Amino acid sequence: MSRAKAQDAEGQELRLDAYLPYRLSVASNAVSGLIARAYQDRFGLTIPQWRLVCVLAEDGALTQGQIVARTVMDKVTVSRAAQGLAKRRLVDRTEHAEDGRSHVLALTAEGRSLHGEIAPLALAYEAALIAGLAPEEVTLLKRLLGRLQTAAGQLAGEAEPPRLA
């Protein structure tokens, strides 16, 4: 039985294991899944909630729209993460002074304390993940990921890529 092969104009075959977008997705899922289990098990946080806590710890009070732009998460995900963190009193959610439809989020003292507890764990996971790489390889990897993000943004018609959390 013959199998169909997807080929481009030059006759190159699409092989999923060699397809960069697929490899990036699989690697991202593996890393996120590993870290998510630690955050969930030890701190009861989802990945979106952790990203929101980190962004607020770095940038201070932000609107939900600013968090969407900063984290590249969709509005619903940010809203759900914010609601869950507010219920746990890790963030304060107040009406925006100039736009009543918008809310401003800020970490509470408890939220800042939780961030201070989790941040060393996150850095330890990162160190373990990159332990087999030379420092110059880590620098190159970060630069290449930034370039891929910029290229993807340009292909999608974005003027400037968002900063990742």
What does this structure look like?
The protein is mainly alpha-helical. The chain has a domain at 47-154: Arc Repressor Mutant, subunit A (Orthogonal Bundle). 61% of the residues lie in helices and 7% in strands. It has six helices and three strands. Strands 1-3-2 form a three-stranded antiparallel sheet. A hairpin with a 7-residue loop joins β2 (91-95) and β3. α1 (20-43) packs across α5, α2 crosses α5 (109-129) and α3 packs across α4. The longest helix is centred in the first third of the chain and has 24 residues, at 20-43. The chain is globular. The relative contact order is 0.10. The model has no long low-confidence stretch (mean pLDDT 88).
Largest sheet geometry:
3 strands, antiparallel
| CATH first level of the domain at 47-154 | Mainly Alpha
Unreliable sequence segments? none
Taking strands numbered 1, 2, ... along the chain, how are they ordered across the largest sheet?
A: 1-3-2
What is the name of the CATH topology of the domain at 47-154? Arc Repressor Mutant, subunit A
Question: Using only CA atoms, what is the Rg?
Answer: 19 Å
Superfamily (CATH H level) name of the domain at 47-154: Winged helix-like DNA-binding domain superfamily/Winged helix DNA-binding domain
The secondary-structure element order is HHEHHEEHH
- Find the count of extended strands (DSSP E, 2+ residues): 3
General form: globular
The overall pLDDT average reads 88
Q: Would you tell me the structural class of the helices and strands?
A: mainly alpha
- Spatial separation of the terminal alpha carbons: 48 Å
* Helix amount: 55-70%
Just name the CATH architecture of the domain at 47-154.
Answer: Orthogonal Bundle
Question: What is the count of DSSP helices, taking H or I runs of 4+ residues?
Answer: 6
What fraction of the residues are assigned to beta strands by DSSP?
Answer: 5-15%
